[in-house]
Structures are given as C-alpha cells and as structure tokens.
C-alpha cells in the first residue's frame, strides 16, 4: 500500500464526481464514521486492495483517483452485506456499483474479464431479448483468450440437458433493442 | 386467479431443475402458473454494473406485460431475476419521475403496481406451511439440511423484506414441512461469490469451499438453495473448489422446490435430481434407513421415563397417545429385527443375560411384539418378562 497520500482540497471535477455517485447510489458518504463493520462482514475483503471502509474514506477525502484505480470495485460481488449492516445507513454496495459504472465509462477497468463478460451478456440480451448461456460462455472465453476455461463443465452440461441447442429469441426483440438504443441516446444528451 | 410466472433465462439452461421442480411444486399445490408472454432477460448483474437506467428498463418491460395480462403477482424463482424486478417495482413506485422516464424508454404503459415474489415467500406466505404439510406423502425424514439463502433473497431489505436478513427462517420452515431437519449454521446469508467464480476463479473457489465446509461443521449432510447461481457455484463448481483445497467436498445440493416436490411424491427424474453435477440420488436413497434409526432412538428415549409420561397424560390426549405409542412400538420391533443385541442390552443390564435374551428373541416374532409393546407401555414389566424369558431359557439349557 502507498505510504503517503497528498491531501488537497478536491478539484471541482472530483467534487462533481463524488456528488454524482452519491446521487446515483442515493446515499451520503458523509454519514460514514469509519467503524469498519462493512469490511468486517465483507466476504471478499480478503481479496481486495482497499476494503470497503477505505473506499468510503477515499471518497470522503476527495481522493477519486485512488478509488478509480482500486481493484476492489471489480472484486465486489454486490452481495449487499455491507449496506445491510451499516449502522449509519450508508448504501456501500450501491456506491461500489456507481463507482464501477464510472470506471467503465472512463475506460478505467482493472479487471477486463468482468467488463468483457458484462459486454457479452448485454449484447446477447440486446440481440435476442434473452440470455443464451452457452453462447455467452463461448464468447467470453474467446474474448478473454481462455479457450479451455471451464471446458470440463461443457460436456457434462450437454449430457445433462443443461444447454439448449439454440438461443431463445423473443418476438419483441426489436422492442428490447430499442430500449438499449433509447438509453444510449439519453447517455449522449 | 393464475399466478404470473417469470421462469428466467437460466430455466432453459444451467437451472433447468429449478424450473422443472418449481412447476411440479405448483402442480402439486394446485396453482396455475401463467408465463409472462414474450418476456425478456432482466439484465441481471451485467445491466446494473453498466447502466442504472438499463437495469430498471429491462425488468420494467416484463412488469408492463404482466400488467397487460392483469396479473397481480409474478413468481420469479431465480434470486437475481426476483431482485431486479423488485428493485424496479420499488424504485418506480417511490419515484414517479423515474417511473415516467422508464415508461418512455420501454414505450409501454407502466404503473408499477405488480408484486414480484420469490419461491420462499410464495410457499410460506401465499400458500402456507400447513398446506404444504398436507401434501407431503413421502416425508424426507432423516435428511439434515443447511438452508442456504445467499444474498439477493434477503438483501437489500427494502426490496425483499419477507424475511430476516441475518437469520432468515422461511426456507427452514419449508424444509421442516417436508419432514427434513434444518440445521443451525453461520453461513446462511453469506455470498457464494456469484460471478467471481467465472472472472476470478481462485477467489470464487474459496467462497464456495467455505460455505460448504461451514454447513458440514454444523452437521448438515446437504445444502438447500433457492437460487440458480448459488446452485451453479455450489454444485457445478464444487469439484473445482475442492481441488483448490485438495479435498473431495462431496456435498449434495438441492433446490428447495426439488425437496417440496419429492416430498409430494414426484420422482427424482421428474424434478431433475439426476441432472446435478454432485451425485444427489444416493443421499435421498439413504433417508429411509436414517429415518428408522432416528425413530428407534426417539422411541427409546421416550420409553425410559415411560411411567411418568403415562401418568402425566390426561384423558383427552389418550387417542393421540395411543397413536404415538403404536408408532413407537413399531419402531421398537424394527429395532429388534435389525439389531437384537442392542435392544436386549437396553432391557437387561447384565451383559451375559442380555446376550441370551437377544438369542431367544431373534426371529421370534411373538416375543418381539410382546417386549416391544411393554418397553413402550411399561418398561418395568418389560424387564420382568425379559428376565423370565432368560431364566426359562437357562433352565432349559441346564436340562
């Protein structure tokens, strides 16, 4: 961990970032008194570079760069234990969610696999209206260059009838596609 | 009125047993499920990781379809589907501006009036535990289950709210209604790692391993879930997680709906048990033997303070007592047939005399019936009669 952090008043940009994620997550970081209950209960804190309590502290101090660079926001499994247990009612899981979306939009992704998976998942929904698991896994493996990942599960899944032969498509897939398009247009506005 | 039904994408693939067993459970309880017409994927975690509005709009299209079909309640067995639809309902209801925005995006009328329910609240609150008990024809007595709720069925409470988020009980109640035992354990609402098992396998494996080991330490012989992703991780990825720790975890995992349908008389195949990755049929086959052992132990426990219990019971309970006694007697008989030595030792303290008693009663149905009955109704007399048997036998042998 870095030993020295230079504290300076946050820039206007950072301030705007912080109030944006607070708005998105519908919560306030100022409520946090750093008790650490979120981190004590977090099932993935063991794998994080900065556990949830530290992420909130960075935000309180206006250290946006530290948050965006943290692996933690990609490790968070959104299990919501932190939000459920916070004695101050801070919705930490939603903050993590909002930070992840900001990092994604800024192209600051420490874990490409998560982003690739999400992209593949949503492109399936956009094109077919439903998720086709087999196609999704294949696409994920191809894009992350892990051709043999989970190969040991593939054949047994087919044998057990857990893979449908073709993707399910829905009649209203144009409606679903339009939902994606309208949201994309809104984002540009 | 039929119940709206959103099977979700995993129902056609990795979670096919959940779909099969949910539909059998509904059939058994006489509930008509009406599938939402032309439903779409809820977007799951990928949508709310990417864009908040998208994560609300995708489920909203399904909810709007349900409104058009005049369905008040929608059953969403998958915990993620349930959570996303609940989040949309709650957020649109609390924020009318948001509701209007969503309406514009999906280009459909959306009142946010419906109620998405999970399998657990459907079975406990809408159907009721008593009704389930009535339908049980093949109780799962002998099963020791750890009820695993995971994350999204109990959190965040403003979306779920049908159960406690630290020590939930609904699944325990359902499992107990099937005749199984639900153990107390610490990892009820811990996370299975969700998609981390795919993106960061070594982190996911640790989380899967810990859930399974905690269940075992609490005395569970299987884990019960109501989420297809928890199932995928605990069942399909169990072998991989065990490999990381060089152990064979060998813990069968069941969907709660599989257990309900099995207890209601459906076959393993009908509910999808043979499709599991961790072999789950032999544990079910071992249950009758375990049940008999439990019954014999229960009977023995009650037989000891028999006199006091008999004295304490009042006339009104007589019929019930009579029935209970018959059950106990039957269990005692079974005990004598299976293990006469053990049963004999229970009546006569002296080892040698107990051994002789075991030899006498082995295969003698009349004597077994007599002793079994007396052990339940009058243990003192049971001893006297047994002692007389032994004395008589010894005299015979002397001759």
Q: What does this 3D model show about the protein?
A:
- The complex is a heterodimer of chains A (189) and B (399).
- Chain A has two domains: 12-105, Fumarate Reductase Iron-sulfur Protein, Chain B, domain 2 (Orthogonal Bundle), CATH 1.10.1060.10; 112-188, no CATH class.
- Chain A is mostly helical and 189 residues long.
- Chain A has helices at 12-25, 37-41, 52-60, 64-69, 72-75, 81-85, 92-105, 112-128, 133-143, 151-159, 173-188.
- In chain A, 58% of the residues lie in helices and 0% in strands.
- With 399 residues, chain B is of the alpha/beta class.
- Chain B is 60% helix and 7% strand.
- Chain B is built from 22 helices and eight strands.
- In chain B, helix 4 (79-94) crosses helix 5.
- The longest helix of chain B is centred in the last third of the chain and has 21 residues, at 318-338.
- Chain B is elongated and about 100 Å long.
- The termini of chain B are far apart.
- Chains A and B meet through helix 6, helix 7, helix 8, helix 9 and helix 10 of A and helix 2, helix 3, helix 5, helix 9 and helix 10 of B.
């Amino acid at each position: 961990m870095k030993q020295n952090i230079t504290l300076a008043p946050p820039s206007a940009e950072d301030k705007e970032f912080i109030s944006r994620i607070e708005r998105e997550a519908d919560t306030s970081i100022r409520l946090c008194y750093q008790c650490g209950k979120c981190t004590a209960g977090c099932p993935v804190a063991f794998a994080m570079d900065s556990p949830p309590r530290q992420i909130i502290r960075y935000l309180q101090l206006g250290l946006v760069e530290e948050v965006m660079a943290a692996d933690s926001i990609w490790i968070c499994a959104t299990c919501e234990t932190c939000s459920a247990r916070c004695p101050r009612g801070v919705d930490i899981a939603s903050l993590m969610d909002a930070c992840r979306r900001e990092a994604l939009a800024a192209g600051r992704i420490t874990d490409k696999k998560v982003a690739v998976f999400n992209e593949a998942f949503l492109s399936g929904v956009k094109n077919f209206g439903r998720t086709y698991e087999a196609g999704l896994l294949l696409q994920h493996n191809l894009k992350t260059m892990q051709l043999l990942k989970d190969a040991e599960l593939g054949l047994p899944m087919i044998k057990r009838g857990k893979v449908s032969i073709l993707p399910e498509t829905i009649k209203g897939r144009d409606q679903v596609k339009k939902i994606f398009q309208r949201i994309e247009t809104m984002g540009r506005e | 009125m039929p119940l709206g039904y959103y099977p979700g994408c995993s129902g056609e693939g990795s979670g096919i047993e959940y779909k099969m067993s949910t539909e059998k459970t509904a059939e058994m309880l006489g509930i008509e499920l009406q599938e939402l017409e032309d439903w779409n994927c809820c977007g799951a975690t990928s949508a709310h990781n990417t864009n908040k509005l998208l994560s609300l709009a995708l489920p909203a299209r399904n909810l709007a379809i349900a409104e058009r079909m005049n369905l008040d309640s929608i059953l969403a067995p998958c915990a993620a589907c349930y959570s996303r639809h609940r989040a949309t309902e709650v957020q649109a209801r609390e924020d009318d501006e948001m509701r209007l925005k969503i309406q514009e995006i999906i280009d459909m009328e959306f009142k946010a009036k419906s109620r998405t329910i999970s399998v657990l609240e459907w079975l406990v609150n809408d159907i009721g535990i008593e009704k389930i008990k009535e339908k049980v024809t093949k109780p799962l007595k002998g099963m020791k289950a750890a009820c695993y709720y995971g994350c999204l069925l109990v959190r965040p409470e403003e979306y779920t709210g049908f159960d406690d988020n630290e020590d939930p009980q609904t699944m325990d109640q359902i499992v107990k209604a099937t005749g199984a035992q639900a153990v107390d354990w610490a990892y009820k609402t811990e996370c299975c790692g969700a998609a981390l098992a795919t993106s960061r396998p070594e982190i996911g494996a640790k989380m899967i391993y810990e859930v399974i080991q905690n269940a075992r330490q609490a005395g569970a012989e299987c884990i019960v879930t109501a989420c297809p992703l928890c199932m995928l991780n605990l069942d399909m990825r169990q072998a991989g997680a065990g490999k990381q720790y060089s152990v064979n975890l060998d813990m069968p995992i069941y969907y709660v709906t599989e257990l309900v349908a099995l207890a209601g008389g459906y076959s393993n195949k009908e509910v999808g048990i043979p499709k599991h990755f961790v072999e789950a049929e032999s544990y079910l086959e071992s249950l009758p033997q375990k049940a008999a052992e439990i019954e014999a132990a229960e009977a023995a426990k009650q037989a000891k303070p028999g006199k006091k219990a008999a004295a304490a019971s009042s006339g009104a309970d007589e019929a019930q007592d009579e029935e209970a006694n018959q059950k106990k007697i039957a269990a005692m008989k079974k005990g004598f047939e299976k293990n006469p030595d053990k049963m004999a030792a229970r009546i006569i303290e002296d080892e040698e005399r107990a051994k002789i008693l075991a030899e006498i009663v082995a295969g003698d149905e009349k004597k077994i019936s007599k002793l079994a009955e007396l052990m339940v109704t009058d243990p003192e007399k049971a001893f006297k009669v047994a002692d007389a048997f032994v004395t008589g036998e010894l005299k015979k042998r002397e001759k």
